[in-house]
Amino acid sequence: xxxxxxRPTPDGGVPVVVDLPVPAPGPGQVLVRxxxxxxxxxxxxxxxxxxxxxxxxxxxxxxxxxxTLGEGVTGWQPGDAVVAHxxxxxxxxxxxxxxxxxxxxxxxxxxxxxxxxxxxxxxHDALVTNGRMAPGEAVLVNAAxxxxxxxxxxxxxxxxxGTVIATTTSPAKVQTLLDQGAHHVIDLSSQNxxxxxxxxxxxxxxxxxxxxVGGTVFDDNLTxxxxxxxxxxxxxxxxxxAEIDLAKLWRKRLHLIGVTFQTRTEEERLDCIRAAERDLAxxxxxxxxxxxxxxxxxxxxxxxxxxxxxxxxxxxxxxxxTAPSAGGR
Length: 329
Prior knowledge:
About 30% of the residues lie in helices and about 30% in strands. It is an alpha/beta fold and about 325 residues long.
């Protein structure tokens, strides 16, 4: 089978397509014939750190059809159309835990489905599980045109947020955010977040912030929050360091929450998938939430796909179509 791997170089890893044996599923696992996967910003960052050693598998989500069931797996059949979360998913075949598999809606394309699970489970975990968003509350999503940002914007609107505010630094992306569920968009190239949030909320502030930017907007986020607001930190695109005004934290009784899958147990990861499936499956089926696919690339064009993400001109997800080659195995 063909698979994408990160080849080490002194200047950082580069994606290449290699030929590998088709893996076999172990107990509690399934082998999936992959139709589509997608790129995530974290993969680019990790690839840049691969400067020596062995080639590294890449990809964390997929859509495809179950090929083979491992020992003890029930509830699935070969041929079932699914999405899944795992490792090494940018390949013609991938082995994943049966507990990390979710039914693919018939209403979804392969490119959409291959772009769904990682960002939507992350956004759901941030907004619902950790942010405890309640219907009617005000939500702010920073860097909202990225995969997680668009997912959080859609989920907040679909689950009944009273006010959904999205931020971008590009005037050209404002309409896209409005189309994806934002009630208000703050264009940070010409507007100030703090004053804009104050105007929108009548000086009350927002109840939940899903932030992918980090230190460069941290103080503005604290200022933009309502009493007992929850700031959920999912990324550090701007900076990993910030200075905190403890008076703001104390006075407003704020909750600062960090989330990552890097320090979760396997059981916790699977719990996140089940929680997202519980709340989002029906919404996805009727297309109340839908992954925004900016562009699709073939596996052979993986270098161009990485270059497209590196330039940060995309809105939403970059999908990788991985239709198996003749013979496959």
